């Protein structure tokens, strides 16, 4: 393999600097001592079942391995990073979970390089498999994508694990990238992650989070801009079952002019104590003139005993923008949709199935990776069997 390519120049970290005071954003630090053990009363932890994440929040926990498998075109280089090199490239930890992960690598930090102007003919597939929850695993990954590259990256999680991790994606000017995280954890897995995206000038970036497994999953996702003209589209789908906690926290820092962002997450809940959390925050700094942003979260409750928390936030420091908005909703099946379908001879269970498929289909298609879209629709159908029974044929998506 060739040597790693030069990463885009390190620039802004997703932090709140001195000109902004906000309870939504703790002070970033590599030092675990700067991130006290959460009590659950803090703003960034108040929706999280802290006790379930204790294995990932405690210093000195026994560290376990997690199996890695990477399939990638030959232009892609995977290498190891020392601790100092990782700190020079990675996003600064924003909370205790990410600081613990940064300080407790189970195995050496990894760096994945995609050269400038590369047009990959296949996705970079990264499979992570947990081998048990008796111990905790921690890891840090930096992905450097060169200027004007074209790439798709798919990260899949399976098996049982307690996993704390940090990912940093540094995306060079003019690159076009799709990044997908697919969570198919076993029912006992606990997963906490900090994921940062640094977008170069005139980049086009699409991200997707698909969460269908695990006992407790908390994903903190942040994005910032290294120059004007970048376009970011963040998608998400999730399905929370009985006793399951799924939490997605998103922060978009519009710190450059003429940048765009769209956030659209949709989730279904079924079963007693199924719990989903979506926190969407957009900060529009004084320098971010001419930006356009919108964030949306929709939740569909299928049974009694579920809870969906959705909190959209806008922090606007300049009025010279093209647009800024947000929305969040939680509801049951649309009675009019069910009536329409049943009036045409469709049985109630099948009508409910079609409503759920329709709820997800648009966003799944927009991920833009056919293999992933098909896989997600099958996962959705698997979830629906729990409440609606088996179906012999999957509707086309």
Helix content: 10-25%
* Count of beta strands: 16
Order of helices and strands: HEEHHEEEEEEEEEEEEEEHHH
Low-confidence segments, given as residue ranges, are 1-21
End-to-end Cα distance = 39 Å
Question: What would you say this structure looks like, in words?
Answer:
The N terminus is likely disordered. α4 crosses α5 and α5 runs antiparallel to α6. The chain is α/β, with parallel strands linked by helices and about 400 residues long. It has a 16-stranded mixed β-sheet that branches. The chain is built from six helices and 16 strands. It folds into two domains: about 300 residues, no CATH class; about 60 residues, no CATH class. Helices cover about 15% and strands about 40% of the residues. One of its GO terms (biological process) is iron-sulfur cluster assembly. It holds the Pfam family SUFBD_core. InterPro entries: Fe-S_cluster_assembly_SufBD (IPR055346), SUF_FeS_clus_asmbl_SufBD_core (IPR000825), SUF_FeS_clus_asmbl_SufBD_sf (IPR037284). This is FeS cluster assembly protein SufD. It comes from Acidipropionibacterium virtanenii.
Question: Concise description?
Answer:
This is FeS cluster assembly protein SufD. The protein has 2 domains: 32-332, no CATH class; 334-397, no CATH class.
Topology:
Blueprint (H helix, E strand, L loop, with lengths): L53 H4 L8 E6 L5 E5 L1 H7 L6 H8 L5 E6 L9 E22 L4 E22 L4 E10 L4 E10 L4 E8 L4 E10 L5 E10 L4 E10 L5 E10 L5 E10 L7 E10 L5 E10 L6 E9 L3 H8 L5 H19 L3 H19 L9
Parallel strand pairs: 3-4, 4-5, 5-6, 5-7, 6-8, 7-9, 8-10, 9-11, 10-12, 11-13, 12-14, 13-15, 14-16
Antiparallel strand pairs: 1-4, 2-3
């Amino acid at each position: 393999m060739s040597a790693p390519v030069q990463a885009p120049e390190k620039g802004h970290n997703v932090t709140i600097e001195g000109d902004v005071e906000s309870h939504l954003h703790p002070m970033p630090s590599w030092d675990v001592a700067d991130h006290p053990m959460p009590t659950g009363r803090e703003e960034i932890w108040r929706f999280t079942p802290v006790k379930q994440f204790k294995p990932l929040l405690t210093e000195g926990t026994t560290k376990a391995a997690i199996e890695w498998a990477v399939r990638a075109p030959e232009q892609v280089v995977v290498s190891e990073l020392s601790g100092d090199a990782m700190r020079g490239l990675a996003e600064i930890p924003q909370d205790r979970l990410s600081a613990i992960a940064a300080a407790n690598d189970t195995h050496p930090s990894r760096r994945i390089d995609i050269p400038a102007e590369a047009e990959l003919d296949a996705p970079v597939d990264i499979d992570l498999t947990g081998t048990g929850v008796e111990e905790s695993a921690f890891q840090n990954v930096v992905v450097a994508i060169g200027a004007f590259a074209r790439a798709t990256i798919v990260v899949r999680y399976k098996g049982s694990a307690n996993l704390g991790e940090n990912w940093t994606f540094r995306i060079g000017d003019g690159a076009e990238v799709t990044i997908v995280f697919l969570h198919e954890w076993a029912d006992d897995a606990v997963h906490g992650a900090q994921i940062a995206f640094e977008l170069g000038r005139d980049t086009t970036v699409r991200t997707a989070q698909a969460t269908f497994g695990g006992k407790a999953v908390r994903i903190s996702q942040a994005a910032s801009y290294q120059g004007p003209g970048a376009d970011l589209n963040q998608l998400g789908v999730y399905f929370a079952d009985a006793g399951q906690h799924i939490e997605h926290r998103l922060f978009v820092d519009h710190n450059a002019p003429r940048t765009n962002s769209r956030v659209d997450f949709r989730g279904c809940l079924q079963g007693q104590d199924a719990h989903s959390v979506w926190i969407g925050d957009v900060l529009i700094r004084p320098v971010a003139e001419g930006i356009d942003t919108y964030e949306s979260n929709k939740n569909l409750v299928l049974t009694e005993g579920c809870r969906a928390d959705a909190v959209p936030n806008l922090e606007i420091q300049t009025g010279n923008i093209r647009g800024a908005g947000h929305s969040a909703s939680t509801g049951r099946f649309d009675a009019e949709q069910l009536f329409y379908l049943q009036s045409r001879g469709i049985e109630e269970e099948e009508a409910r199935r079609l409503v759920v498929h329709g709820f997800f289909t648009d966003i799944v298609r927009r991920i833009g990776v056919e293999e992933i879209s098909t896989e997600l629709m099958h996962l959705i159908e698997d979830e629906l069997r729990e409440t609606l029974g088996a179906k012999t044929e999957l509707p086309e998506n």
